[in-house]
Amino acid sequence: MIATETSIAGSLDAVVRPTPTSEQIYGISEQPKPTCPMIDAVIADLRKCDREMNRWERHKDDAEYLASVLDTVAWIIGNIEPDLEKIRDNADKIRGWGQEWKDLAKEHAPKPDETESA
Length: 118
Fold this sequence. Notes:
By secondary structure, the protein is mainly alpha-helical. The chain contains four helices and two strands, in the order ββαααα. A hairpin with a 5-residue loop joins strand 1 and strand 2.
């Protein structure tokens, strides 16, 4: 929200005040961050694994190179599990946030017997 205030010198100055979110107004948890970027990061890691594994054929006689590919793939896969746990945690937050909104809507919605008598 932009408001104006009169300064000591008498001119109007624009003042920006943060507008409260719906969550703040209704006392609901802050909206969780979207999971799509988190999922995209896991997909990108899986694609890196695929690229690394597809390189082995060109170097199948080079044991040192193959060991390097395996190390890289193992490192990438090792990082995927914690990323998936973050996605699971975020999905739980989204589910809880949605439940809070549902509960609020039910609290303010007319009861079925109220709509029948209207």
